[in-house]
Specification:
alpha+beta, Immunoglobulin-like, elongated, 6-stranded mixed sheet, 15 helices, disordered N terminus, about 725 residues
Amino acid sequence: MKSTVRGTRRAAVSVIAGAIALGLVVFCWPGNGAGAPRQSGSQVREEVTVALKLLQAYVTTKDGKPVTDLTAADFEVTDNGKVVPVTHFENHIVGGDSIAPGAPVEGPRLNRKFFFFFDFAFTDPRSSRKAREAALNFMDTAIRPGDEIGVLSYSPMRGLTIHEYLTTDHARVRNIVDAFGLRAVAGRAETLTNFLYADELRHMQDSGYPNPTGGAFQPTQGSSAGVDSAADAYFQEQARAQTGGVVDEGRRQGYTDQARQFAQTFANLARAMRYVPGWKNLILFSAGISRALIYGSRRSVTVPNMDASNPDQMMAELNAYDNAQSNSGVRTEFSDALKELKNANSPIYAIDCTPTAGEMDINNPVGTSISSRELTGKDSLVQLAGESGGKYFSNSMDTKNALAAIGDITSAFYVLGYSVPAAWDGAFHKIKVKVVRPGCKVVSQNGYYNPKPFQEYSRFERLLQMTDLALSDNPLTQIPADVPMGIVPVIVGGWPNLVAYVEVPKDKAAAIIGKRSDAYLLIYDEDQGKSAVKSFRLKPPEDGPKDSVSVFAVPAKPGRYSCRIIVQNSETGIAARGSASISFVNPVAAPVWLDPPLLLKAATGWADLGASPETTLSGLFGYDPEKYAPITGTLPPGPQRVLAAVRLSLGVPEIELDFTATDAQGTEKIEVPVTVIETHQVKSLRTCVIELTFGGLKPGPHTLTIAARDKSGAEANETTAAFTVK
């Protein structure tokens, strides 16, 4: 790939382009890498002049078998009508079953992406259970270890729910799908989005334009929230439904309004998905929206006879006439959804869940009559699939065959790449992909949108972007800065807490920590399968950017936890994130209790950021932030003097203690001299800064043990900390 970059790291463009699978590079670091959006007034200015565009193409023979032996020369790609040379080419085969004769079989190099979308509004309970079983079977038979899976659902009361975003943790996805209709399991994405919905509702109310009695928020004059009132109204209603607000249940339960909301969901989801690079396969389990509601009845219906002398007959004729008419609102919303889906690069594989005649309810045989079939949603599902580039599968008593076909369709694909001018204007590019070999049928995305400035994202687009950023192993919407994270259990007020923190270097902090920046902590309890989210608004240092530590202290029961901290500029979207895991047990009652130590270095000019002064690292561990800073990375080899902050909970506050320390690497243990530098005490909590003198640290993992004993040696306890020498 050829590219020109205004900056110092020209080679970074190709690295970043390879790291974002199947998409256009949209974010990087200002002053610290290629593709950096730079501030110009209130706008983000793109510094890359050329980027690599990647797209997927599925090629089959006339009988539907994947063709897997093509080369770059077999493809012709046009971008907005202009033929572009294919400079990047990849061939991906996920299986090897039922491929075209003579084609080579290779292992996968990029992940496939699937979203299960369960419609609980227009699908009966029995069909929903079948859909759940079919999805589980698909995971057992078609999903490969590297595939990424997400789970979405739509219901009358909550609208669109994002249960789990794209992840390779298939056991977690299976647990969520398996629970549908049986028990409540909230996935990480559901916990996160509920938190973000509630947080955004508070922000909208604080901005002065809520309508607390229901309906859409009314933006104040000049508010940026009024840029797209339809999108804001959808987001507001979603937020109220997801967070348990009053949603006018009578209106929401109406079939017509549900159909409109269902169509709006696909339109807004498609708008957000189009900025997520790559091919996102959406498997929809639904009975669809009634054709008559969208397009009107095809049966001949006479104008009602307005005979007031026979009110029963008149009402019956009026109802029949009304039911035969289309609904202009539903038709408009559905047409908008189809338009957006064309360019979302998210093909819908629609599994028709309408009960078949063989499965009719014997208590309601009229439900399968010829006259009622016009109320089925087959046509709407066909259009959703067709316009998005997917496929419709008719209602069947065996949905497993349909899902097996989806596995075959997505089992082999090509990745084509070409150079494009990088622009942050949100403009649409029409793409056409042709295969010059006779007898081949190609399915590819219809086009793509240039990235747009974060300020122009709708609230729902920001929600999806944050979900991707927070939960994806490899985020598609931006490349966040990877920052070191630490996590340590401490006793606060007699209760166990997790103290989690990330170090954001000054150059990255300058881009992230501004007038409106937030820190988020996502905690996942590995034992309970539950997740939680915490956040606080960051206050930037008054004297300019600094090396910063963002800190959370949250009560937590002993157990195994996976944690992630995201620090994001709310105005530009630029973010950093760190991840860590921890396992700890119940503290044992003892006259002397030591929390795990916090390793420190002598440093000045650091910003110690927390929700309150008491929950900063310096506030918890009692050291002077003007003199010391935490060590979050590796230590250099050789002789070292390392500082450590130690917290002690004392049964006898006046007790005098001596410290000893050992450094263990494998089976080798070495005594480490200890010098107490500072001591502070508030009631029974004593904090100390000690100096550890290592004679010669060797590369590799180490375990530091610090012990505290009283003068008689009768009262003693110890704690450990792990560190690595590079």
